[in-house]
Amino acid sequence: MSVVSELLRSEADGTISFGDYSLGAKAKLDNFNHSGDVYKVKTFSEITKLEKNGVFAYESVPGTAVNAFGADENGVCFQVEGTGDAEITLGLEEETSYEVTIGGNAVGTMTTNLGGKLTICVEMNGEPVAVCVKKA
Length: 136
Fold this sequence. Notes:
- By secondary structure, the protein is an all-beta fold.
- It has one domain: Chondroitinase Ac, Chain A, domain 3 (Sandwich).
- 0% of the residues lie in helices and 60% in strands.
- It has no helices and 13 strands.
- It has strands spanning 8-10, 16-18, 27-34, 37-44, 47-52, 55-61, 65-72, 75-81, 86-91, 97-102, 105-111, 117-122, 129-135.
- It has a seven-stranded antiparallel β-sheet, with no helix packed on it. The chain has a six-stranded antiparallel β-sheet with strand order 3-4-5-6-9-12, with no helix packed on it.
- Strand 5 and strand 6 form a beta hairpin.
- The protein is globular and about 35 Å long.
- The chain starts with 7 loop residues before the first strand and ends with a strand.
C-alpha cells in the first residue's frame, strides 16, 4: 500500500481510497462522486481530511493514506498508512458505543461525543494497519 496519487479513488469492492502524506503542500479534490455520495478530500504531510456529502467523515494528524475505506450504518473499516503514529478522528453517530479493533487487536469499547466524533491513536510501523470501528 502507498499514497493515493489521484487523492481519491473508487475501488472495485465499493470502498474508496484517499490521502497522500508525502505531499509538502496542501492538495484537495472536490465533488468526487461515488455510489451516490459526494466526497471532498484535503491532504498533505500534516493532515488528511475527508467529507462525505458535506459532513465530516475522517481526519488524521499527521496526514495518512487510507485504503479500502468502507462505512455503513454499523461503523467503518479501513487500512491506514503513514510516516508515524497518527491521531485519527472519525465522524460517526452521536452518543453511540463502538467496538474498536486496531491491527487485529481489540482495543475496547469507545463512545462518541455529542457531535458523533471518535478519536483513536494508531501506531504506524511502516506497514498498513487495519482499523475497524463497529457498533457495540
